């Protein structure tokens, strides 16, 4: 299947927004502007961009503690995103959720989730809603390699398979659960083999190739839309930064500089840029224009966040019960 | 039109009414379908509403409790049956970190209108993993309403109210009262969550009881009335919202407080009520507050040990006599 040029350009833009947003977050965090935890997605952008490009506003996603990329790709706006990271009243969650809990049900974003494996059953529930009430809509569930050892992974795949729910399980295998490598936490190499235990298709794809991500997820999403049930997709990738921005030496304690360097050279954005040039989809100048435009948008979001007030203390007592 | 039916039948009617009225309502849990639930609360509903709306789940509490959270966030109103409250522990993340937190954590951008039906109570010889009464644990988790109906009438009215509520509700039943009978209207009605009920007015001694302990408190009150002691019995009915005002009003009248709940002693709901009275009505007290509860032990299997665990009418009478020493 050929991917239309317009779509490829959109994929590129989405990846650039995620990368540029997070590079700014990295800097702001280092300078003490952003409190709490920041788990960056740099290096993994192709997955969120490629998968979410196949979704409409009414489809759902559940995300993880490393969720900025997913929610941006699903359509979240940068101003309330950044304001939420600052803990400001104008943020997506009025400053009460922070980086790990950005949600907007109207955009189908059922929340980033601070608990590893926490989003899997919730995706199953959203899948139930789709099946019962909104035929043709689907739910995409993002989770990591380490979450796939959690009981919720197995319970959720089993449940979704039994009921043929329109849920696409997207495992972002970045090779590490915090500091523990996949070799240390799993006896298998490809997590996709676990799909066999639930009688659903499971495939492993290069997660740094956005076009492969786009095509493989398109197929799984279409199957789900047709009522043919769930799929387990495994995308192999790598996080350039540490587990979070406070991780000593950006994860240097548990991986080698050579490994990191090799994956930096395997950058999903650079790979797409090479494709764009080779296939004459975009010129270098056009690509630079995307970066410039995006940088401006992000600068605006930072200004918005910085100028926004913190929530008043009474806000602490709001939204405990509906 | 009122007639006499069981507590389980009253719950069944509430479910049927809500499912009839709103196609967003569905039930899931272990053996709730053809089997009708192990306490027969969902009996006959699958025949009426189909396998998709009365859904037998795999034994996977995290998946179906979390599934209810996801379904509730996306427009459904799931009612989940947890076969015994003891099994909720395997879904604790879904209850504590997900169900109870979504609304607040997302700044009000998501609602989680779901009901988790659980049952507590010892007395069926089911030992330490099927007999616990740890409902008070959830009082410590903001973001969950906790309903505890003690009669068939309240069971029906409070379950309809819980299903229609926009919050997650932990609906606590007692396994020893499923076959108890009482007057229940045929038509639908609601009983508000968070409102205690004075089930027997009195002026001498306040007893605040939950579930199975309400009937025991009423029996003791009748017996004590013959001895010239006028007891006021309050059915607390909800742990959250907690009707502190109803308790304080009664304590200000009688100058006493006895709490009665089947949970273990430490961290029992009675401790919270005692602290509330100590903070806000200490000067009304004429006698020490007495908490009637289970002991701080797991529930034993052996019948005499199990019976000794369950707070009895005698335990309540002992508490009353202790308070009477000061009056």
From TrEMBL, chain A:
InterPro entries: DH_E1, PDH_E1_Alpha_Subunit, THDP-binding, TPP-bd_CS. One of its GO terms (biological process) is pyruvate decarboxylation to acetyl-CoA. It holds the Pfam family E1_dh. It comes from Desulfoferula mesophila. SUPFAM superfamilies: Thiamin diphosphate-binding fold (THDP-binding). Residues 14-312 form the Dehydrogenase E1 component domain. Keywords: Oxidoreductase, Pyruvate, Thiamine pyrophosphate. One of its GO terms (molecular function) is magnesium ion binding. It comes from the Bacteria. The keyword Oxidoreductase applies. This is Pyruvate dehydrogenase E1 component subunit alpha. The gene is acoA. Signal peptide: none annotated. Its cofactor is thiamine diphosphate.
Automatic annotation (TrEMBL), chain B:
SUPFAM superfamilies: Thiamin diphosphate-binding fold (THDP-binding), TK C-terminal domain-like. Pfam families: Transket_pyr (PF02779), Transketolase_C (PF02780). GO terms for molecular function: oxidoreductase activity. Residues 5-180 form the Transketolase-like pyrimidine-binding domain. Its cofactor is thiamine diphosphate. Keywords: Oxidoreductase, Thiamine pyrophosphate. The keyword Oxidoreductase applies. This is Transketolase.
């Amino acid at each position: 299947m050929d991917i239309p040029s317009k779509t490829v350009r959109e994929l590129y833009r989405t990846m650039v927004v995620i990368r540029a947003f997070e590079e700014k977050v990295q800097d702001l965090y280092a300078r003490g502007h952003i409190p709490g935890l920041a788990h960056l997605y740099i290096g993994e952008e192709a997955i969120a961009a490629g998968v979410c490009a196949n979704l409409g506003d009414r489809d759902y996603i559940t995300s993880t503690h490393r969720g900025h990329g997913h929610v941006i790709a699903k359509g979240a706006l940068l101003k309330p995103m950044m304001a939420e990271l600052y803990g400001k009243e104008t943020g997506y969650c009025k400053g009460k959720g922070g980086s790990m809990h950005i949600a907007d049900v109207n955009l189908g974003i059922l929340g980033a989730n601070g608990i590893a494996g926490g989003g899997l059953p919730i995706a199953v529930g959203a899948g139930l809603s789709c099946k019962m009430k909104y035929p043709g809509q689907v739910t995409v569930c993002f989770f990591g390699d380490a979450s796939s050892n959690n009981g919720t992974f197995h319970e959720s795949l089993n449940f979704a398979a039994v009921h043929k729910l329109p849920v696409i399980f997207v495992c972002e295998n970045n090779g590490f659960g915090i500091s523990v490598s996949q070799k240390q936490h799993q006896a298998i190499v490809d997590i996709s083999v676990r799909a066999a235990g639930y009688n659903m298709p499971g495939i492993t794809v290069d997660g740094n190739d956005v076009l492969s991500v786009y095509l493989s997820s398109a197929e799984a999403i279409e199957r789900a839309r047709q009522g043919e049930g769930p799929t387990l997709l495994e995308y192999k990738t790598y996080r350039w930064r540490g587990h979070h921005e406070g991780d000593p030496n950006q994860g240097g304690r548990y991986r080698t500089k050579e490994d990191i360097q090799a994956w930096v050279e395997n950058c999903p954005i650079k790979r797409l840029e090479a494709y764009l040039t080779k296939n004459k989809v975009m010129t270098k100048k056009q690509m630079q224009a995307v970066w410039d435009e995006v940088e401006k948008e992000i600068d605006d979001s930072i200004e918005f966040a910085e100028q926004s007030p913190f929530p008043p203390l009474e806000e602490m007592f709001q939204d405990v019960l509906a | 039109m009122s007639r006499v039916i069981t507590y389980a039948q009253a719950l069944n009617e509430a479910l049927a009414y809500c499912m009839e009225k709103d196609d967003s309502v569905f039930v899931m849990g272990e053996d709730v379908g053809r089997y009708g639930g192990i306490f027969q609360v969902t009996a006959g509903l699958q025949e009426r509403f189909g396998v998709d709306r009365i859904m037998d789940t795999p034994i996977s509490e995290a998946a179906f409790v979390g599934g209810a959270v996801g379904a509730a966030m996306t427009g459904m109103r799931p009612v989940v049956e947890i076969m015994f409250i003891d099994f909720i522990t395997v879904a604790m993340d879904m209850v504590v970190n997900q169900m109870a937190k979504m609304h607040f954590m997302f700044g009000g951008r998501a609602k989680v209108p779901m009901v988790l039906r659980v049952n507590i109570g010892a007395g069926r010889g089911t030992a330490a993993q099927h007999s616990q009464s740890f409902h008070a644990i959830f009082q410590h988790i903001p973001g969950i309403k906790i309903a505890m109906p003690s009669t068939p009438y309240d069971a029906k009215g409070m379950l309809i109210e819980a299903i229609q509520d926009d919050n997650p509700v932990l609906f606590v039943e007692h396994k020893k009262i499923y076959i108890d009978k009482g007057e229940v209207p045929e038509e639908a009605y609601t009983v508000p969550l968070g409102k205690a009920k004075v089930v027997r007015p009195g002026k001498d001694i306040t007893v605040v009881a939950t579930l199975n302990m309400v009937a025991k408190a009423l029996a003791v009150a009748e017996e004590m009335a013959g001895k010239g002691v006028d007891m006021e019995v309050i059915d607390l009915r909800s742990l959250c919202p907690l009707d502190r005002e109803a308790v304080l009003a009664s304590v200000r009248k009688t100058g006493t407080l006895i709490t009665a709940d089947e949970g273990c002693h430490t961290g029992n709901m009675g401790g919270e009520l005692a602290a509330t009275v100590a903070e806000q009505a200490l000067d009304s007290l004429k006698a020490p507050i007495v908490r009637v509860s289970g002991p701080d032990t797991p529930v034993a299997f052996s019948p005499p040990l199990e019976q000794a665990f369950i707070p009895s009418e005698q335990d309540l009478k002992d508490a009353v006599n202790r308070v009477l020493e000061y009056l």
